[in-house]
Amino acid sequence: MQYWLRHYKGLFSKLSHPIPDLNHFLIYIVCMSSFRRLAIMLILIGSPILVFAQPVIQPFTFNTHAHDLPMVRHGSLSWGDIDGDGDLDLFLSGETTSGLVSGIYENHGLADDGTAHFIALPYPIGTVVYSFSSWADFDGDGDLDLLVAGSSTLTHPYSPSTKLYRNDGNAFVDTGVNFPGLHSGSSSWGDIDRDGDLDVILTGASASDDVVTVFAQNNGGGQFQMIDDALPGIGYGDSALGDMDNDGDLDVVLSGSSAGGFHTRLYLNNAGQFTDTGQELGSFAFSSVELGDYDGDSDLDLIVGGGEISASLMDGQVRLWNNNAGALSSVAHSFEGVVAGDITSGDYDNDGDLDLFFLGAVTVLGRRNARIYRNDGGNTFFNSSNLIGSVFSDVEWGDFDADGDLDLLSSGYTPYGQSTTNIYLNQRQIRPTIPSTPRLLESTVGEGAVALRWSHAAETDPSNSMVSYNVRVGTEPGLSNVVSAMADGRTGKLRSPQPGNASVFPQFSLENLSEGTYYWSVQSVNNALIASTFASEGSFSISNSFVTDTVVDTQLPSVFALKSVYPNPFSSSSNIEFDLPEPVSVTLRVYSILGQEVSRLSEGILSAGTHRLEWRGTDSHGQKVSSGVYFFELRAGSSTKTGSVTQVR
Q: pLDDT confidence of 555, banded at 50, 70, 90?
């Protein structure tokens, strides 16, 4: 409760710098008088909030499971398979009864007595509280790296830090990236600038108690550029990234306390410039934001919950917003409010749609909630289970026991005055199915850019009716060093339990690519976070003279064949389409009518499938060639096909 006293007062003190109008003045008076009543109440009680309603445990599908993890509050939980062994390990931080703790815990399955057994790994992760954390493959080497932020002190003045630890296989190494030190905030990873690597949005409170939002742009080689004026400062809340307007880039939702009050806003990404839509989506702090396709119409909807100013200090509220072609409309619901907790979504019952889990307080001084809301379609949610309520909480879905359904992990501060960490096993005993692998991979290349597209096969199991997509791109077959899918390349199993990086759209685009040949694939991820295998690998190339695209189909060609040359004659570029029955090294040479070599493209090994090369009518130096007839030789291994094209200026 001391946390409420410290931070709640700090939040509203910002409104007096100035108080811009009468409404803010009245709010300030109400909040300060509420704060005084809270202080008097705490003096009279002299103990945690034992006088309020207690949670009722009603096991329906989820039952608590014994474990040997620390019990924490004011902390952070993040599942991730750090060692590639197929099970979920854990980062955990927060306050325990004996002090602060932060660490990576390796999952060792069940002990002889059935207890979930975790071993704390001896990595030098700094202890933090009021913390947030996230896994991300920021360097594209295929394993999970770790970002951790929080305060090393429990009381004011706070001493916040933000650290990025690189996974080197047998150690996590502090990268020394100069992120701003933050606590009580959030981190959201995504390729915001569409160059392939993961950028991150950071929000939170600084050592000087300012609220901050930073767009940390990943420039490769472990270097990040800190952009602190792209978005307004937010703390004591949450953030989320997703393509809300279906234009192919990631937009930002920010929620929490700002210099001007409590806000939840959507900022659209236009070529790296963020524009506020101007729509207030919830005047909340101590808030949580979650994006997902809750109504099954193949775009991202929004749910946000948090504390709203009230005469009783702060009441929990929830807003559900449906996305209709980029326009957000409010949806009526029967959710109870949640403040100082977390909202997360996942398909726990394997029926295909996204269910919700709420954890937090209904009001600052009231009951703690832990409710699972089953999605029954048509924006209808049914409260299917009550679990152990807590405040100052965090929660994560993840298949802890690897049985194919989503389990729950939560932490927080119970009404009994105890810190708690709970593992809930999902015991529905439903045999899950794996979603179908995407097919018909296509790529269209422009100047240093590529648009990737695919199709999803029809599903017979309703649990796979709604999926997201996860793309990998590398500079060699099988690699993901350009775009990381954070998944096992052979089995498709996710290393971090989260939706695919291409969201719910069967398309993905990249810009500012260097010259060279790239190899790519995609997998489906259903709402239970079960992933398909990756599709047959496609490839594309970017060079001065040529651009190559690839179409991969499940019906592979049986012979090497030149299919078509179009347009011919051409003015700007001509496409040479051909079939490969097996992976083979491909080279294309273009000759003048006098037999002089004009340009050459060595593709390296291309996968079996239908491929397309685009010649832009330039020589090997990138200079435009003159009008006339040109011959080409397409060599695949020891086989050769020839043809001609006519350049018309």
A: low
The secondary element (H helix, E strand) that includes residue 512 is none
Nearest of 333, 411, 563 to residue 77 by alpha carbon: 411
pLDDT at 147 over 90: yes
Side chain identity at residue 97, one-letter code: T
- 3-state helix, strand, coil split of the chain in percent (to 5) is 5, 50, 45
pLDDT > 90 in the chain, percent = 58
CB 147 within 8 A of CB 200: yes
- Whole-angstrom distance, CA of residue 482 vs CA of residue 568: 34
- Dig out the tokens for 110 from the structure: 């069940």
Reference 247, options 270, 227, 266, 231; nearest CA is 270
521 pLDDT higher than 60? yes
Cα 148 from Cα 95, distance rounded (Å) = 15
3-class SS of residue 230? coil
Omega of the bond prior to 157 within 30 degrees of 0, cis?
yes
Strand order in the sheet with 172-174: 129-136, 145-151, 160-167, 172-174
pTM flag (> 0.85): no
User: Each residue of 392-421: pLDDT tens digit?
Assistant: 999 999 999 888 889 999 999 988 888 999
The one-letter amino acid code at 272 reads: G
CB count within 10 Å of CB 450 equals 21
**Beta-sheet strands, E only, within 387-512:** 391-398, 407-413, 419-426, 439-446, 449-455, 467-474, 507-510
> Rounded CA gap, 131 and 379, in Å?
33
Give me the pLDDT at residue 68, please: 95
SS3 400: coil
Q: What is the mean pLDDT of the chain?
A: 86
Query: In whole angstroms, what separates CA 4 from the centre of its chain?
Result: 30
3-state secondary structure of 7: helix
Q: Which two tokens stand for residue 557?
A: 């060609």
What dihedral angle (degrees, nearest 10) is formed by the CA atoms of 579, 520, 271, 279? 110
Which band of pLDDT confidence, cut at 50, 70 and 90, is reported for residue 548? low
Q: Are 303 and 318 in contact (CB under 8 A)?
A: yes
Judge contact between 241 and 190, C-beta under 8 A.
yes
Residue 37: its pLDDT value, please?
Answer: 33
Could you tell me if 468 and 500 are in contact, meaning their C-beta atoms sit under 8 angstroms apart?
yes
Q: Which residues contact 154 (CB under 8 A, 6 or more apart)?
A: 95, 100, 129
Question: Band of the pLDDT at 554, cuts 50, 70, 90?
Answer: low
Predicted confidence (pLDDT) per residue in 181-205, tens digit: 999 999 999 999 999 999 999 999 9
